[in-house]
Design brief:
- The termini are far apart.
- Strands 2-1-3-4-5 form a 5-stranded parallel beta sheet, with helices on both faces.
- The chain is built from 8 helices and 5 strands.
Length: 236
């Protein structure tokens, strides 16, 4: 049985805008590409097995889908499309996207700019019978009256709209996580990345589980009714 074998960055690297490419992670037929940021990396989970990508891969195993996975990470909105291009240098059966938090935080990025950037990312990974699941913005503890919270909601709507244009499934992370403080890590939580403790920002194990469930439900719907697209990917 093929299982997801995560590769994790050293804590010192986490503060950098970085993309993991096939050069960093040798390609050996991985059928799942996880495109995301530190949350995809497993930030604030107690172990790699509790991070949402591992939970998603475990669920696929239970469904009889045996695929290995690879991570392509971006910690800066300007490198999101680079991560997508690198991910799609090889055919993938599944593409799981968790992008939007950093764009929501960066107030220099307008909603129109984000729409264009996210649309380009989807164009790069969507085509043929590849199952693509776009996650809306996960809530990371923003107060309801904050600009970041408002932008998280707006950008989540943009993600859903751009996904609908391309017959891409949506995992509604925003609705599943927003204002759920019990899903956010605290300094009392032990973690396997970074400082070793939670940070009142990234999701704890329960948060990762909720995020995984949203992706799993979307993937199950796609497996039951696979896409039959007549267009190819367009990576510019």
């Amino acid at each position: 049985m093929h299982r997801l074998r995560p590769v994790y960055l050293l804590p010192a690297v986490l503060a950098m805008a970085v993309v993991l490419t096939p050069k960093d992670i040798p390609f050996d037929g991985a059928g799942i590409a996880f495109i995301g940021d530190s949350l995809t990396l497993g930030a604030a989970a107690t172990s790699p097995s509790e991070a949402f990508p591992s939970l998603v891969a475990e669920d696929l195993d239970k469904q009889g889908v045996e695929e290995e996975g690879r991570f392509f990470l971006s910690f800066d909105p300007t490198t999101d499309i680079i991560a997508a291009r690198q991910a799609m240098k090889h055919d993938r059966r599944f593409v799981i996207i968790e992008i939007g938090v950093h764009a929501a935080i960066d107030q220099q990025i307008t909603a129109d700019q984000f729409r264009q950037m996210y649309g380009s990312l989807l164009d790069c990974v969507t085509g043929g019978d590849t199952i693509v699941v776009a996650g809306t913005v996960p809530w990371i503890g923003w107060p309801a009256d904050s600009v970041d919270y408002q932008r998280g909601g707006v950008f989540s709507q943009i993600i859903a709209e751009e996904a609908a244009k391309r017959d891409v499934a949506v995992a509604d992370l925003w609705t599943a996580t927003k204002l759920q403080l019990s899903l956010i890590s605290t300094p009392q939580d032990k973690t396997f990345l970074g400082t070793g403790f939670g940070d009142n920002i990234h999701p704890n194990n329960a948060g990762h589980a909720v995020i995984a469930q949203a992706y799993e439900e979307a993937i199950s719907r796609e497996l039951a009714n696979p896409p039959r697209r007549t267009f190819d990917r367009q990576c510019h």
